Amino acid sequence: MEENIVIKKNFVRRMYDWVLSWEKSPYGLLALFILAFIESSVFPIPPDILLIALCLANQKKSFKFALICSIGSVLGGMFGYFIGYSLFEVIGKPIIAMYHYEKQFADLCVTFNDYAFISVLIAAITPIPYKVFTIASGVAHADFSTFVLASVIGRSFRFFLVSALIYKYGQPVKNFIDKYFDILTVIFMLLLVGGFLVIKYAL
Q1: Number of domains in the chain
Q2: pLDDT tens digits, residue range 6-37?
Q3: More confident residue, 155 or 187
Q4: Per-residue pLDDT reduced to its tens digit, 164-200
Q5: Exposure string (b/e) for 89-125, b if CB count within 10 Å is 16 or more?
């Protein structure tokens, strides 16, 4: 058990370092956009890590970075919707199977339209996997304008909040992350797993 935790922590650390490496690249903004895009439908690591790094490197542009991240994420969410709507058998089903909650996803799709706006909004802000809800929205043929509105509000709130904290507090936030990375990794893992458990047992 401890060995598995160590492996997962090391994996998250490597992913964290890899994502951070783009901060010093001339393609940092493009990487932020792409990361935000693919996280909304496939990728497990949130774009907040690179967003924080870019904001720390240039605090005056924090809100510009938040805007790029929000646009990339919402567009990625639309792609997730398209996967659910038209490509579920080819792409969506393998993604859902990768996280081992096929039954819960099927149950979610049945009742999704009754709570579409609030479900997408909560998933867009919290650690609940947003990608699951983007795909479910498409499968359930949820109203597209409702989906987009909830995504824009939720994703913008999340990323602009992160950027605002960096804009105000700056380097101490980075120092805190570096100093308590191991603890934060465990918290991150718990939140990620917790988000999946919400889908598995509560929805």
Answers
A1: 1
A2: 434 455 556 556 666 666 667 788 999 999 99
A3: 155
A4: 988 888 777 667 766 665 565 556 555 555 554 554 5
A5: eebbbebbeebebeebbeebbeebeeebbebbbbbbb
Please check whether residue 36 is in contact with residue 73, taking contact to mean a CB–CB distance below 8 angstroms.
yes
Neighbours of 175 (CB within 10 A): 11
Q: Which domain holds residue 117?
A: 2-202
Residue 82: other Cβ atoms inside 10 A = 19
Burial class (CB in 10 A: 0-12, 13-18, 19+), 10: exposed
Paired tokens of 127:
């650690």
d(CA 156, CA 161): 8
3-state secondary structure of 163: helix
d(CA 81, CA 170): 35
Beta carbons of 67 and 29 less than 8 angstroms apart? no
Q: Which of 164, 155, 192, 143 is nearest to 76 (CA)?
A: 155
pLDDT digits (tens, 9 = 90+) for 95-138: 888 877 677 788 778 777 788 888 898 888 877 788 888 999 99
Q: Decide: 101 and 200 in contact? Cβ < 8 Å.
A: yes
